[in-house]
Amino acid sequence: MIDVLIIGGGIAGIETACSLQELGLETLIIEKEKQIGGHLNNWDTLFPTKRSASEILEYYTEQIRKKSITIYLNTTVTSIRKQDDGSFEVYTSREVSFKSKTVVMAHGFSLFNAQRKEEYGYKIYENVITSADLEQTFKQNNDVFVNPMGKIPERVAFIHCVGSRDEKSGNHYCSKVCCITAVKQAIKVKQLSPQTQVFCFYMDLRLYGRGFEEMYREAQEKWGVQFIRGRLSEVAENIDGSLQLKAEDTLAARPFKMSVDMLVLMVGFEANKSTALFHNSCGVACTESRFIQPRHHHLSANATNIDGLFTAGTSIAPLSVFDTLNHAKAAAFAIHSYITK
């Protein structure tokens, strides 16, 4: 029997495993993808430092090697069962099971599918992309910026809160990092293409972290990014492939139209589909937002309603990379305390 089985090989799972190994506990990571790193594999740079995401991945890859942490890739957890002795039996797609004293759910989040907002034209109009798509563009073309049609855009619009704070999509919560991601990406667009006009349409700007407000001011004062408090109602494609936006300026209380060459949808976080599976197989409690419910928001943020079952990272809510790593470190100490007692 192993000490700790960790579901998810993203940065939350890896940091938890590394911290637990340093505390003298044996860990095992199960990851459904063919590589570790989770969503970090898809990001170009991280806010607010603009450090390359690949640096973080390289660091953790080396830590796993040094600490000889066992990882099963291309393996999906199908169910979790608590045993009479308090341990857990974890069943996988490999048709093998593992017995563990404790389990950590670090399976992360899913990105909102922008196709559910049909009025925005994602996968309908060529020049409508998501924030995740734009990160891939940055990774592949670090010295040039063009729209999907291969043209340098004269105007680019970012739409905040796509799939977040939205009753129609069923997600009432804030995804926490969309605003600062839009600021980061808007700055990158201006750095690559200074002549491009950049507009950010927001509901409310929520810039809570260290350095976030400074990035917002930099975007306006140094790079000329224009922020419009407004709601986008409809997108239509012009003959030349440009996009006609119909929106409302909520500060001026008036509707207006704007033509842009590229539209970026800032997609929010949703609970990973695995969360519902774990809820059904072992009874772990979930919030109204479908994320895992911690036992106590302040005093037991890593524990769940089931003894020995813990959480780490964005399985509980949208978090930044910084907050995810801190939550994972806290999970390691909570698990160590549980096992040693």
Write up what this structure looks like.
With 341 residues, the chain is an alpha/beta fold. The chain folds into two domains: 2-108 and 272-340, 3-Layer(bba) Sandwich (FAD/NAD(P)-binding domain), CATH 3.50.50; 114-268, FAD/NAD(P)-binding domain, CATH 3.50.50. The chain is built from seven helices and 18 strands. The strands form four sheets. Strands 1, 2, 5, 6, 7, 8 and 18 form a seven-stranded mixed beta sheet that branches. The chain has a seven-stranded mixed beta sheet with strand order 10-16-11-12-13-14-15. A two-stranded antiparallel ribbon has the order 3-4. Strand 12 (197-202), helix 5 and strand 13 form a beta-alpha-beta unit. Helix 1 (11-22) packs parallel to helix 7, helix 3 runs parallel beside helix 4 and helix 4 (178-192) packs parallel to helix 5. The model has no long low-confidence stretch (mean pLDDT 94).
